[in-house]
Amino acid sequence: MVRDNWRPNSSFMSAVSHFTNRLKVWNKSVFRNIFHRKNCILSHLSGVQRSLNYGPTSFLAKKDLMQELEVLSHQEKLVRYQKSLSEFIKWGDLNTCYFHLKTINQGQQNWILHLKKAKSIWVHDQAELRNMAMKF
Questions:
Q1: What is the distance of C-alpha 62 from the center of its chain?
Q2: The organism sits in which domain of life (predicted)?
Q3: How many separate domains does the chain show?
Q4: What is the distance between the alpha carbons of residues 115 and 81, in angstroms, rounded to a whole number?
Q5: Is there a smaller number of Cβ atoms within 10 Å at the N or the C end of the chain?
Q6: pLDDT tens-digit profile of 24-39?
Q7: What DSSP string describes 59-70?
Q8: What is the distance, to the nearest Å, from the Cα of residue 41 to the centroid of all Cα atoms in its chain?
Q9: Mean of the per-residue pLDDT values for the chain?
Q10: pTM higher than 0.85 for the full model?
Q11: What percent of the chain has pLDDT over 90?
């Protein structure tokens, strides 16, 4: 595929653009849209299921559709995995770092600094706050 569609005499960006377009055409012609195919099979299965109510003639068709649906589900899982992997390669640990910092910051903000006693008296002493919490 690469040998047939790569243009070594053109600029790098032009060659990449041409190759990308050829890969998209190849992908659609070979695999088609997995999600669209899955929806078509599901609609065929519902039609077969309705026809099974009228007789056993569609049992083999249902079995074939179920096998094809299983293959498509596996392909869909692979596509989702590849997309998530490419997103991780693209963004790396940027989001992870953000959420770690957010969690640490949130944890630092969750300190109890004072509590109100029964007679609207605010207690700021850490030892007395600990005693109040234990009695609660």
A1: 29
A2: Eukaryota
A3: 1
A4: 49
A5: C
A6: 888 777 767 787 888 8
A7: HHHHHHHHHHHH
A8: 22
A9: 79
A10: no
A11: 0
pLDDT band at 96 (very low <50, low <70, confident <90, very high): confident
Domain that holds residue 114: 93-136
Query: Does some domain include residue 131?
Result: yes
CA proximity to 42, closest of 12, 62, 21, 17: 62
DSSP states of 79-115? HHHHHHHHHHHHHTTHHHHHHHHHHHHHHHH-----E
| Amino acid occupying residue 49 | Q
**Residue 112 domain-assigned (yes or no):** yes
The C-alpha atoms of residue 68 and residue 74 are separated, in whole angstroms, by 10
Cα(107)–Cα(38) distance, integer angstroms = 45
**Residue the block writes with tokens 């989702």:** 80
Token pair for 56: 């056993």
